[in-house]
Amino acid sequence: MSISIPEGFLPETGTDPAEDLCGPFYLNREPDQITAGLLVEHKHCNGMQTVHGGILMTFADFALCAQARYLTRDRHIITVSLSAEFVDTAPHGSWLTSKGQVVKRTNSLVFVQGVIQDEDRPVVMYNGIGKRIKS
Q1: Class of domain 10-133
Q2: Omega before 24 cis (within 30°)?
Q3: pTM: predicted TM-score of the whole model, two decimal places
Q4: Strand residue runs (E) in 8-68
């Protein structure tokens, strides 16, 4: 693979064993936006050497929770609901990013929408609801 991890993206490991197994996933934290990243490796691919839908869903879940935690300042978010539309595919070696926005926040829930992209090309659009865990 010739693509390297862009500057500003750091691995997010050690807090969720399932995400560590499926990743590594990366985060770039900026003052008003958090961006998740995934470098598509062979282990993330299906038989057509494109990123597997299950990995995309796991990445969307990771991004949703990271964005919700960062933008609400909650320590933990647990996914209640996640829906996705697969609009394109991404080949082995792609650098995927996900940006999202908090649409609504209540005392117990946070609603997020986002998109996973390969450069400027949308791959997955997702909407989710996270349960705010106050600790």
Answers
A1: alpha beta
A2: yes
A3: 0.94
A4: 10-11, 26-30, 33-39
